[in-house]
Design a protein that fits this description.
Layout (H helix, E strand, L loop, with lengths): L4 H13 L4 E6 L2 E6 L3 H7 L8 H11 L1 E4 L2 E2 L4 H12 L4 H21 L3 H5 L2 H9 L5 H5 L11 H30 L4 H28 L3 H11 L8 H12 L5 H37 L13 H41 L10
Antiparallel strand pairs: 1-2, 2-3, 3-4
Length: 356
Amino acid sequence: MSLTVVQAYDNIEKIITHGFLTAGVSYAGHHFLLKSMTDKEYGNLALYRRDDDVFADILYHLSFCTVFIDSSNFLENRFIRIPQLVQFYSTLPVVFVTKIKDTIQKLNKHYLNSLSFLEGFCYTDKSRYLWRILNLENRDHYLGIAGLSNVGMNSVQENWIVINKRLDEEELYSKDLNLALLISSAMNPKGTKVISRNYDTQKKELDELRKDIAEYGYDRKRVTEQKKKSDWSAPVKSREDLVRELYRQMEGKKDKHDLFIEEWVRSQQSMAEEAKKQAEDRQKEFRAKIDALDMSSTEGSKPISASELRKILADKKELQRDAPIQEFMTAAAQNESSERFLKKISSTVIRASKED
């Protein structure tokens, strides 16, 4: 049975707050509240396990997975009351013991199926809310059920703590960075702006990825890419798979890798044809523009003769040779006019007026 994201998140919340998943079973007017087995409890179960008696081993397993029988809480003073539960289950019919065992197996299966959604749950608002108000060392106070701490901490809770501490560190880093950028902006506003823009871009991409994981319970992009890579070739995991693959190749049947290559070749051909079509369209458009031009007002071109070309080149050389002479003549004329002006000034006599 595959779990939806909502069901998986609900299971993970119970695993974090309670430490396990629960299910009820009734027998002869009595109600049993059972729970899933945690990884830490399997280690504790080894202290009671008896390899020489399989039935006794099952009874101890059921005792570890018993929370309530009617109004009796078997999580309090747990290690003292486990022998009492073993004695009690030994008196019950084997059919009912088997039913309890099957119920616990289903709980354990739901427990394991929910683990792949843990990362997505950690990025939800509900998870961050629990992180701020829940004390895992004293879950009895949060839920009002005595003895929950005696179950011990499971691996889901440990990973949940690690991820949330990491998220806390990111929030603190973001706060400290903003303060540092505020101070540095007074000294180097341009550099501060570049750092802030790069950080905001990376943070936005990370937030979008985590939002997507929280919505779907997993990284869809990564899983899709891995699935595409796995579809390139047929799985060969055993000798029988290899024999079947060889027979398929001998019969000329195409596997997923062959189909992928054919699809790639078709895509390349399609891209080449599209590029060719675009080039032809641009050429046609250019020709249409040329044909639409009015060439009647333009002077027609004619070929130049060899004598005309020699005359043009000779005129050009003559101009280049005469340019320094013209500059010299212009400078000499300026000097001559300056000398005449000075002579005219020097010949003028300033006389005193008769009134002086």
